[in-house]
Structures are given as C-alpha cells and as structure tokens.
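Thread: Modeling a multi-component assembly for a lab meeting

Hi all, long-time lurker, first post. My supervisor asked me to bring a structural picture of a complex we are working on to next week's group meeting, and I have zero experience with this. I have the sequence lines for every component (984 residues in total). Could someone generate the structure of the whole assembly? Inputs are pasted exactly as I received them:
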Amino acid sequence: MRAATPKNGRRVGDKVFLGLLTVTGLSVVAIALLMAWTLGRDAAEPISRFGFFGFLTGTRWDPVSGQFGAWPFVLGTLITSVAALALSFLPALGLAILSAEYAPRWLATIIDYIVDLLAAIPSVVLGIWGILVLAPFLRDRVYQPVFEWVLERAPDQAAWLGNPTGYGLITATLVLALMIVPYTTALARDAIRLVPVEQREAAWGLGATRWEVLRLAVLPYARGGITAGAVLSFGRALGETMAVAMLIGNSARLPLTLFGPAATMPSVIVNEFREAVESLHLAALMGIGLYLFLISLVVNLLAAWLQRRLAPGNVGL
Amino acid sequence: MTGQRISGGPVRGSGANLRRRYLRDRVMLGLVVLASLAVLVPLLIVVWYVVSQGLSALDWDFFTQDLGSPTRAVTGRPTGLAQAIAGTLVVDLTALLVAVPVGIGAGMMLAEYKEHRLNPLLRVLNDTMNGMPAILKGLLIFTLVVRPSGTFSGFAGSLALAIVMLPIIARATEGALTLVPWSIREAGLALGLPRWRVILAAVLPVARPGLVTGVLIAFARAAGEAAPLLLTSLGSNFLPRDPWNPLEYLTKAADTLPQRLYSLAVSPYEQWHAMGWAAGIVLLLLVVVVFLVGRLLTRRDH
Amino acid sequence: MFKNAIKLVLAAAAAVAGSAFSQAEADITGAGASFPAPLIATWADVYRDVTEGAVVVNYQSIGSGGGIRQFIDQTVHFGATEAFLNQEQLDQARAGTGGEAYNLPITLADVVITYNVPGLETGVVFDGEVLAGIFLGDVVRWNDERLAALNPGVQLPDMLINVVHRADGSGTTNIFTSYLSSVSSDWAERVGAGTAVEWPTGVGASGNEGVAGLIGNTPGTIGYNSLVYATLNDIAYGYVVNAAGNVIQPSLASTSAAGDVELPQDTRTLIVNSQHPEGYPISGFTWALLYENADANKAFTSRAQAEETVRFLAWVMTEGQEFSEVLDFARLPQAAVDLNLARLAQVKWQGENIGQAIVDGFTTR
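Re: Modeling a multi-component assembly
Sure thing. I ran the full set together rather than chain by chain. Output:
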C-alpha cells in the first residue's frame, strides 16, 4: 500500500471531484428553476387576471369565454395520486419482501424481472388496455351493478355516484397504482437486501420469528430505501399523463362523484395542449403546470420533513 | 421451550404466545403473497394482451421497412417500423449518455457530501422534477432548443428524456450510496486515501447494484414516454436518407416507438393497430434486454 | 378501395416522369391537424415515389393548435389546421415575416353524428335544433317527440341519451360546435364554438378513437366523429337536415358540395350550415399554412427547399386530389383550387417570385 499522498495532491483531487459533483448538482437545480421560470413567465396572463389564489381555486374552465380555474384539476390530481400511493404501497412493499426475503433465488429473479417489466410498460399501452379491457370490465362488473343497486334501494343517493361509464377516478387510480408499484418495489428490495447480516442475527439471537426479524430489524434499517421508493412512486403518480388522460373521463367539472368523469392537472394539459390556439388558453395550461410544480414542491418538502422525523439515525439494537 | 426453526436461531417463547406469533408469521407471509399476486396478475394480463394483439404484425418487414402512409398497410404493401426502432435506439441511448453522469454525480453529491449547502435545495428540486409531467419537460426543451434552432430533432428528444431520467437516477443513487456502511468509508480514509478515491474505489463498487437498478428503471421510464417527444423529436414516417448514420436521427425529426405506438393505436386502421401493439412488444423486449445486460453486469461483482 | 391507390400511384409516376420537372433533393417538414394526417401521409408516400426519392415530406399530426403554433414559431415548413388563422395570428405571422401567411384548403373535413342504439341503423335524421338540444342536455330520451318528428316510421326506443364528446381539443370539435352555434342561438349563448368547450353534459373521451370506442361499447350513446372513423369502425351515423331543408346523407360528394360556394379571396371561412342545397351541413375546410416570404421562415434553409415545398403543395391541390376519395376524403371544389394556385403563384424567395413558374407547370397540364 502506498504511503499517504502528499497533502497538496489530495486536496487538489478532492477539490476537482467536488467541483465536478457540484456542477452536476447545479445542473439539476438549474433545470428545475428554468422549468419553474418558463412556466411562470408563460402563465403570467391568467395569474394576473384571476389572481394567484383566484386561479388556483377557480372552479370554471371554459376556453370559449376565457374563464379559467384550476381547482377541479388540483382536486383530481391530489385524490388520484394519494389514493394510488395508498393503494400501491403495501402490495409494492409486499413484493419487495417476497423477493428479498422469502422467495428462493430462482423465484426472486423471476419476480424481479416481472416487476421491472411493469416499469417498462409505456403508459400509453396501459391507457389503451384500460380503454379496451379494464374500463368495460369495471363498468359491467362493478360500477353498473352498484349503481343499479343504489338506484333501487336509495335513489336519492344516486347523484353522488355519477354516471357509470367506466371512465373516472376509480379506474384511473387503479391503473395509476399499478404503474407506480415498481419504483417502491425496486428500491425497497435493494434496501432490504443490503441490510447487514448482523442486524438479522441480533434479532434471531433474541428468538424472533421471520416476520418479527423483518419488522424489528430489517425494515427499520431499510426505511431510507423504502421511503425513497415511495417518494419516486408518488412523483410518478403526480406527473402521470397518458394513461390517466385516457381513463379519467375528462370533465372539467369538480370531481364530486364516485363513478363520474374527472380530470387531473397533467391530463388536462396533455388533452388541450395540442389544440390550444388562444394565447390565454395556452397560458392557463402553463399556469396549471406551474401549480403542479408548486404542489410537487410542497409535497416533497413535507416528505423530506417526515423523513427527517422518521430517520433511523443510529439503529440501535 | 424452543419452537421450530424457520431460519437463523431458535425461536424463543412459550405456549400460547408462541403460537400467536407463529400465526402472525404465517399470516404475514400469506398477505405478502396475496399482495404480490394483486400486482403480478394484472401485469401479466396486460403483457399477454399486448403480445397477443401485436404478434401477427411482427415480421421481417416490420424491422426493415419504414412506415409511409396507411395505404401501404391496408393494401398489404411492405411496411414496418424500422424508422421508429432505429430512432428509439439512438435517442434513448443518447439520453442515457447525458443523464447518467449528471444523475450519478448529483446522487453522489447528496449522499457523500451531506453537509454541502447546495444539498437541501438540490434534493427538494430533484424530487419536484420527478413529479413533473413529462410533457412539460418536453415543452421546456422545445423552448430552449427546438424553437431557437428552427427544427425538431432527435437530440432535442434525447434531452427531454434525459430530464425525465435525471431525478430517478439521482434519487436511486443517493439511496444506494447511503446504504453503504460508514465503516467502509472509515477504512478507506484510515488508509490515507483522499475522499474522492474512497468514494470511487471503495463505496461505489459496493453500491453498484443499487446504482444500476436506478439507471435501469430510469431508462425503462423514459423509454416508455411519448409525451415529451411530441414537441422535440416530432416523429417521422420515413427512414432517413442514410439510415445507418446516427446523426441523421439526432439532427432531424426522428421517430420513436412509444410515440409511434400511440398514433398507430389511435388511428382508424386495423392494420395500424396491430403494428402499434407490435411496437409495444418491441419496446418491452428492448427494456428487458437492457435490464438483462444491467443485471448481468452487477451479478458479477456480488 | 385502397387497391385503386396503387394504380393511381403508377399512373402519376408515369405522368410525372414524362414531364419536364427538375428535381432537387429536399426534406420537408409539416405538422398540424390529425384529421388529414392519413391523406397527407399518402400524398407524402406517393410524392416520394413520383419524385423518385428526391423529395421526402414528413408530416406529423400534433393537432390544429399545434400546427398553428409551430407555423408561427417557424419550426415547420408548412402547417395544417382545421381552424384558419384568426386575425391576431395573421397579424403575428405578418409581423414576423413581412409578408402574408396563406391559408390554403387542401381537403374537407366531415363530422358525422355517431350513435349506438339497439335497433337503429345508419340513417336516423337529425336537424340543428334537435342536435343542439341533445348536446345541451335538453333532449334526454331517444324517443323524444322532436326526434320522432324527423323520423316518421322509425321505432325509437325509450332509452336515455348518453352524450359523448371530445375531451381533448380538436378541430372536429371546432367544426361541430361552430355548426351548433350557427343553428342554435341557445347553444351559441350558453356554450359557443371552439376546439375545446365547456360541455353542459356528457362524458369526454380522448380522440376520435376514444369517442368511437366508447360509443361502440355503450348502448344509448351519441357522439360525433369524422366519417372515416365511423365507416371503418362500423358505427351507425345519422343524416342531417341542412340549411336548404334537405336531408343530407354524409358523403364525400355532399361534403365537397358544402365547400362549393362563394369563397372569400383568402378562403378563411366556415362552411358549416352551408347554403349549398346538396351540401352536408357539418363540414369544414382543412387548410395548409404557408408563408408568402419563404426565406423569412426560419425553417427554410435553402431556396430549393422552398421551391419543392411550393411544388408539393401545388401537386396536392391538383393531382393529389385524385387520391382523396380512395381514402374517404372529399375532393376540393374547383373554386378553392383556383384560389390556392393564385396564392401559391405569389410565394417569394428573397423578394424574387418563385411560385409563378411552379404553378404554371401544373395549370398548363
């Protein structure tokens, strides 16, 4: 082994390395800020016309008369993303545990590949499959029967059920949940596999069952990776466009019904962007993009704060 | 009283309490399996659907002919998606070349230099970008690259995809690096190695599987994105004049599988529908191959 | 139907081979409306053969709005749109290039009323009032007396009408809502016309295929699609009573007839609710957009490229129309063709006229 390098050499190497890394970090920051800036600049007109909160909470979206308000889409986004994360988290974690802990090597490999495949399915494919297979299925087997049942027993409740066409919040959320599973699973599984043997041995030494070893020793240690996966999943859910746009029914009215059509911020952008000719319409869509950026920012700040609170720090066992 | 070994050491406990814990153990296993099936079954249904719909369109022509007009497909003349396959390879690989160094660099920054002033801002903005719909990323590149240059180009598409990949790679890299035990760093530093040597030579190899996973899922995500390519690489129904020259795809409008898949699937023509699904199959195969290669690379040093 | 296209290609190639065309190599990019995309793609394919690989036209459908914006941003050589440039956009284009921005009709769009009602075939008759009533949510049952009055002898079932409309912005919506606005003051007041509107009722589906898919799968639904989608997907569609009081069956002939009326010089006009007695009332032109001062368009990098673009468009207006009907698109009425050629003849490169010679090559044939 070489003797210690001369102090100057070490410092230069470290400085250059840190410099390079800083450049990459700054690039990411710059891209994000550029995006916020272009969105803000393009959205200037509707925000100044309706006010920052006025545009956010406005409930009318009428391109013809020039009335724009983002609230229906904000609600749609929040409902679908949170529901999708809630729905997908445990199954995703379950898959990770299955692959990393319980399954024999050959099965784990197969499961890993299938999960990776899930990440690879283009969202347009899931959207089209949803239109051709899932939506009709759900309409015929779930929504329609429930709707008719309610219609018979309690007709006045039917209003908040909405028209069961198969396109709406539930269908979109289900597909969304399916799409975001791989991110949580992939990172959680890697994290669980990397938990040091000593942690497990300590728990076994105390006489724990397999599940208890997981719960007490492995999962807490892997918490960082699991949370990272959940954050990536939620990010995907927030920004998912194509599959949701094809399955959510696309109504610019408030999503107050269970089966009825709704819309999310990305879905309205992708749907109307191609044809938006009026500059105010286009600017309003950019405004929605800006608000999505801000919502994503706030959610991630919250998640960061939560992570700090839950951080394992020194996992003392 | 010791119970039955599942793994590791003997399970200690007594009587009813022990039975309850075993029950819970079995139940949890059952739940885990159930949850996994809930995910795997729909996935397999989707994959089967894509394959069954698109298999008929996968022939030699599919890989060697360009698309042209719907008339070709409907009248049975040679048609295929050669331009989309080639375009996807060029655009996606270029995107990787741009995103991987920057993403891993940013991840390293977050994990290894925790105390750096830039980090809180970097982390939050990185995650925020991950939540942005890809169409807005495409729009950003449109404003920054396409409009000033006066032309759509595959390279603009690569940049848009790189922005899609970046946050995932950075996040996954950070996650993988933080899982490496501190003892390894300590050992390196104790040997007198400079910090950067410790990171590259000691920490990175241990974290490599996690890094590769991050790159792979980022690639999979970007490979399936159609929206950001709409306003950057635009698309094309024809092969470029020199189909073997990658620059032709990067400097002019280029076709890519996910965006072509979408326009084929929403056209009124049956034959184009089948080709759309076939494009889906090729896309999935592409990603599977990339994953296989990636996993092979990491298995070797485990 | 498509087999005829092959014969036409060979004939066109033979005709061109025999004419005095000087052929430079050019890659032309266009973008815009989805409706004419199959037709333009065919034109591009045929034209590539006709010019023996020299001229490759790449047209991608990104929507009419997209087409207009790319045209104004000067990232394409020509745009295509189902909505002509409005005054603001015209002024913008003029300011950017110092010359005109031409709206050149290249084909016609036809919007048909599609529906899925057990027992009802193609041919249910609608008129403007009833359609407006349905899409406003005032007419709610299939056996409503207003619909029955138009369809004596047809057994209309007692079912709820489920309205399906477009969720995404679209030129098809623009034509349909423009029609509804012109036949119903109620609609014009409450909703209006545009590529995306605030629909009073119904479910939104993405794209023509989304509407067609939803209607095909759900009994009782009514919506609107382009004729191509209806015929290729075997969906029933209705006949409509036009301004002259005649029941018109949607067809290529009736669509062309709708456009065969007095046109303004710049062809920027809506032909919905056309005055032509045989005209199908829910039709519209689809325009190509081109700058008069080609060199001012950043997308053009050489004079040859500009010339080939003009030549391609001239070919589209004249010989290209032979391919329209084979693909279920209506032919341009002669009045529109003449106006187009007159415009193309004025295209300039750095002040010098390049259009006249090219157009002459087509009119002397």
